[in-house]
């Protein structure tokens, strides 16, 4: 797996159970996956020689992020490496303009968009859509970095001018009026098998995913089925191998639009580690190894995942002690820590709260609210060493 982040770390965890060893290409020995894999190649994902060293003798080469240049991957394919997903699929997770154009050609529902050659394109596009504009870097963005929700036309022009002056390519999108964001997570194997997990709701703060509710509460059955079918169709049309996350907008008029694609395990699938029969990490490996795919059924009526994001001020209390207290107070909370240093806003772990009992339902707003409160409380405790409900352990 190229990349030594938390996704590779958790994929390694799944590889162990399958009797596999995950070699990782990491930039440094202290990266989350490099800490746990016995087979680490140190190097840059932009260095063809390092990629060759990582691929040598491996059954397949896959990714924890989408930033490997496709020209390198094409070379590796020509040299006989099994690259999964293949570069002609991965490009749609790398380049938002290529993705938008392909989805348009496939007739998938997407926001109106435009390529940008000069600042004046902003005025033309804004006049065409008659509403607020979003500016996005075409490549390299993540966690909302590279996305500007412009306040007005002047702000949009200023943002585009700044990017263009730095030689950064951008595109424009209409700002979608939405109720919430959803994610359709699927997997596809080279054999052509596909599997979809229940569609989830994702909650973003400052462009970063902070919470996932599985399944998406109150989502009409036909919309959920449409989103799952869309995910499976896109995986097939694009020739994806492995997990595909289709980030979606649930618009105020009840439609769904595709935001972007990721071809790897995704934050919106972390709930599957404890809340589904097959986790996204195991499924990614099954798909990449062309094994039959696993059952994607949920194990509980609702599972909520809370991301642990580094606090503005790292607490005095050690993480070890925070974990100890959390376990004492919330024995059902499932903790996943990534072995990363704490920095403000950085994803350092997540907590899953799996709803108990057969009586709960994702349509029961009190049941969902109680699980969300507990996931939030646990995640906030781990990052801040503060109980959101004012509880005093003493
Ligand atoms: N066209 C849009 N309209 C409204 N909000 C948007 C739009 N595009 C992106 N966003 C918001 O910005 C977030 C990050 O955008 P995204 O394209 O997913 O970038 P990233 O690669 O950083 O995840 C989205 O999850 C959403 O909250
Ligand atoms: Mg995104």
TrEMBL record:
Q: Which UniProt keywords apply?
A: ATP-binding, Ligase, Nucleotide-binding, Purine biosynthesis
Lineage top rank: taxon: Bacteria
Q: Which residue spans traverse the membrane? A: none
Q: Which GO terms describe its molecular function?
A: 5-(carboxyamino)imidazole ribonucleotide synthase activity; ATP binding; metal ion binding; phosphoribosylaminoimidazole carboxylase activity
GO terms under biological process:
'de novo' IMP biosynthetic process
**SUPFAM superfamilies found in the cross-reference section:** Glutathione synthetase ATP-binding domain-like (SSF56059), PreATP-grasp domain (SSF52440), Rudiment single hybrid motif (SSF51246)
EC no. given is 6.3.4.18
What is this enzyme's catalytic activity, as reactions? 5-amino-1-(5-phospho-beta-D-ribosyl)imidazole + hydrogencarbonate + ATP = 5-carboxyamino-1-(5-phospho-D-ribosyl)imidazole + ADP + phosphate + 2 H(+)
Q: Which PANTHER family match?
A: PHOSPHORIBOSYLAMINOIMIDAZOLE CARBOXYLASE, PURINE BIOSYNTHESIS PROTEIN 6/7, PUR6/7
Q: How does it assemble?
A: Homodimer.
Any idea what this protein is called?
N5-carboxyaminoimidazole ribonucleotide synthase
* GO CC, alphabetical: cytosol
- One Pfam family assigned to this protein is PurK_C
State the family it belongs to. Answer: Belongs to the PurK/PurT family.
Q: Reply yes or no: does the keyword Ligase apply.
A: yes
Question: Which biological pathway?
Answer: Purine metabolism; IMP biosynthesis via de novo pathway; 5-amino-1-(5-phospho-D-ribosyl)imidazole-4-carboxylate from 5-amino-1-(5-phospho-D-ribosyl)imidazole (N5-CAIR route): step 1/2
Q: Which organism is it from?
A: Mycolicibacterium cosmeticum
ATP-grasp domain: from which residue to which, for each copy? 100-289
